[in-house]
Amino acid sequence: IGPADEDSLQVIRTLNISGSGISMVVTHPLQVGQLLDVSLSIPGFPLGVFRAQGKIMRSSRLMGDESHLYEAGVRFLDLNEEQRERLISFTFRQQRKVIREKKNYS
Fold it and tell me: How do residues 21-68 score in pLDDT, each as one tens digit?
């Protein structure tokens, strides 16, 4: 993931992903309104890679964090219906996987 006009941005962790956007922990603050080129390794997409342009909708420093990490919310801008459906399908598969794992550990 990286600003549309700069180098890659280091994503520490993905917090949430949906058919409309992604929430993630990153190493640098991002400006609301900033555009990003998003590239994620997700099964089910051509060559296993999801690509889209995104816009920073929110960005804040993690509270009490001494390592200078930031949470950023990105809205996908240019998804076609097929991409959105594949992304939603992926998120549902991941949710079912988590539920199955919790049931097995209970």
Answer: 999 999 888 999 999 998 888 777 777 788 889 999 999 988 775 668
Q: How far apart are the first and last CA of the chain?
A: 36
Contact 21, 87 (CB under 8 A): no
Closest CA to 93 of 36, 45, 53: 45
Residue with tokens 């097995």: 104
Read off the pTM: 0.77
Q: Are 38 and 8 in contact (CB under 8 A)?
A: no
Cβ neighbours of residue 50 closer than 8 Å, sequence gap 6 or more: 38, 39, 40, 41, 42, 83, 86, 87
